[in-house]
Amino acid sequence: MSESKQTSTRWWPLFVIWIVALLVWVIVAFTSDLNRQLLIMKSIGTAVAAGAFSMMWLLALSRLPWRIRLKGLGAAVLLLVMFAGLFRIEGVYGDLVPIIKFRWSSGEDRVSTGVVDVSEQIESSYPQFLGPNRDTRVSGLKLDPDWESHPPELVWKQPIGEAWSAFSVLGNRAITQEQDGADELVVCYELLSGDKRWEHRYPARFDEPLGGIGPRATPTIEEDRVYVLGALGDFTS
């Protein structure tokens, strides 16, 4: 049978595929008991499935002329090859959103951290992960809840190396962990100025696609000692 006599194109399967995908995205987005990470995973999975089923429709169900099917397949392959050639997935953010960068860009970023001005001096220190009582609470501090009208004043901002580490604070010392190339760093900053007081570095580098680059732990301060666990299991004090 010639192409001109073939049955008309069958579009409805393609419409069904993307309508179902859209419904899944809407249901996932408005389901309140899902956390952000699960939402991202389901959304990405739905997009991949919709793309795969769309290619199955094109090749097996569309009834389009074969020259158009093959051109569509070639275009899809070309787009994937171009994406792979131009971009790389360096890891994910904390909510599992992929970190996509140009292949020629630098493989490691400096991120910004900062301190805001507060109305009262914090009475207690924050010497370990989750605070002095490991309950994420800070005493002796009052903030205006209306941040649109009275936002906190930024005191300083400092670029630091990649990591998942938080800050531990004792007095005017704010200590964290960072990645700097092939070394992990333990760095102490002035809490009120952002100036670096000292750093301790040692050779260690952890990098994997799901979690990204850098140390995972937060330093613990006990009197005049700082206890640190690196991403490769190195414990120092």
Please report the total strand number as a whole number. Answer: 13
Low-confidence stretches: 1-5, 118-122
Using the CA coordinates, give the radius of gyration.
26 Å
Structural domain tally: 2
Largest beta sheet: what is the strand line-up? Answer: 5-6-7-8
How is the CATH topology of the largest domain named?
Answer: Lipocalin
What would you call the shape? elongated
The major sheet is characterized as:
4 strands, antiparallel
From the N-terminal CA to the C-terminal CA, the straight-line distance is 80 Å
Succession of helices and strands: HHHEEEEEEEEEEEEE
Please indicate the percent range of residues in DSSP E strands (runs of 2 or more): 25-35%
Number of contiguous helices: 3
Mean pLDDT, as a whole number?
Answer: 83
